[in-house]
Amino acid sequence: MWQGWEVETWDRSLREWYQRHGRALPWRKTTDPYAIWVSEIMLQQTQVKTVIPYYYRWLERFPDIPTLANSPLQLVLKQWEGLGYYARARNLHRAAQKVVEDYQGVFPDRFSDVLSLPGIGRTTAGGILSAAFNQPISILDGNVKRVLARLVGLKTPPKKAINQLWELSDRLLDRDHPREYNQALMDLGATICTPKQPSCLLCPWRDFCYAFQSNLQTQIPMREPSTPLPHKQIGVAVIWNDQGEVLIDRRLEEGLLGGLWEFPGGKIEANETIPDCIKREIKEELGISIEVGDHLITLNHAYTHFRVTLNVYHCRYLAGEPQPIECEEIRWVKPEQLSQFPFPKANTKIIDAILNQFNSIV
DNA sequence: AAGTCGTGGAC
DNA sequence: TGTCCAAGACT
């Protein structure tokens, strides 16, 4: 069915649709490759609506590549705080330094150079180069995968057909209008060809779409098999010293929430009470002894691959010199200073609870 | 090559 | 309340 149509026909109808119904997004008002790069990184696995305020604040604080490259990582992470997937911020920072080193601070315009920057894969490289320089490079993000899977009636989960999807994306690319085409295809996926209840009657490709013609649009793309999420119980310590300061630690640079600050703690073992867990973890990780006091708050938080319940207790520092055994760094800080440090979301809720108690007592 | 890596919105 | 999933990259 769909083989009978010429690619040029699809491209023309998509472009006409885009000119009427495309989204007005902040990063479409510029061709500055740096600004577009920032937007592409922030948009990875993150909704447009979430990104927009971060995007504006970022460009205000880091208006160009040298400014970003010369800023301390802690400030960079503070600007990223709340966006998640913090490796994106660390990679963006490293990549900025590489652009300064290797390209005199000018963002490269060659695909292989862009692709070699940390945090930039094939889709992001194509997105940047097509948007900033109108280069004819295809993309394959979540939107495009879904659109193409429905278009051809893909009978497997997209992950299993990634090579075919790239081929198709390449073949369909409008080489005369690559910037418009890529943006249009993503908008189509985001606003018409949505995961649930797609608006097929409004779609410029409805006549060519296998899924719509077969009424399979709610079954394609096929779902990836999902695995159950483990749930961990965590004991967390808000440790106070006699100066009215609390102890925080900076997590290791790599891995989950790398480089962010947190209140120390750890997993509750089988048949272990929460106070016992907290005392043990603090001894193991920081080498100090504490007394566990009042319960502060209990929080549930969902990550991508597991869930946690944080059981947070006020604690009193007793003895020993804190040492960064399983973290990068340790500090005693006054509660009002906590806002200066980048924390993961679950920990900002703990901070709110501390400040609320603090203010209601004082 | 399957697992890892955050958070919020939508339903 | 749970589930899906959003402009993916890296290991």
How would you describe this protein?
The protein has 362 residues and is an alpha+beta fold. It has two domains: 2-213, Endonuclease III, domain 1; 231-361, Alpha-Beta Complex (Nucleoside Triphosphate Pyrophosphohydrolase). Helices cover 43% and strands 14% of the residues. The protein has 14 helices and seven strands. The chain has helices at 7-21, 33-42, 48-61, 65-69, 73-80, 87-103, 111-115, 122-133, 142-152, 162-172, 178-192, 210-213, 274-286, 345-361, and strands at 231-240, 246-250, 261-262, 265-267, 289-302, 307-319, 329-333. A four-stranded mixed sheet has the order 4-1-6-5, with helices on both faces. Helix 1 (7-21) packs across helix 11 (178-192), helix 2 crosses helix 3 and helix 8 packs across helix 11 (178-192). The longest helix is centred in the N-terminal third of the chain and has 17 residues, at 87-103. The chain is elongated and about 75 Å long. The structure holds a DNA duplex (11 and 11 nucleotides). Mg(2+) binds at residues 265, 285. 8-oxo-dGTP binds at residues 251, 262-265, 347. Its cofactor is [4Fe-4S] cluster; Mg(2+).
**Which outline best applies?**
elongated
Arrangement of strands in the largest sheet? 4-1-6-5
Instruction: List the secondary-structure elements in sequence, H or E.
Output: HHHHHHHHHHHHEEEEHEEEH
CATH topology of the largest domain: Endonuclease III, domain 1
Text of the CATH class of the largest domain: Mainly Alpha
Q: Output the CATH homologous superfamily of the largest domain.
A: Hypothetical protein, domain 2
- DSSP strand content: 5-15%
Largest sheet: 4 strands, mixed
Q: Kindly state the mean pLDDT as a whole number?
A: 95
Distance between the termini: 73 Å
CATH architecture label name of the largest domain: Orthogonal Bundle
Count every beta strand, where a strand is a DSSP E run of 2 or more residues: 7
Tell me the count of domains: 2
Contiguous runs where pLDDT drops below 50 for at least 5 residues: none
GO biological process, one term: mismatch repair
Enzyme class: hydrolase
EC number: 3.2.2.31
Function: Adenine glycosylase active on G-A mispairs. MutY also corrects error-prone DNA synthesis past GO lesions which are due to the oxidatively damaged form of guanine: 7,8-dihydro-8-oxoguanine (8-oxo-dGTP).
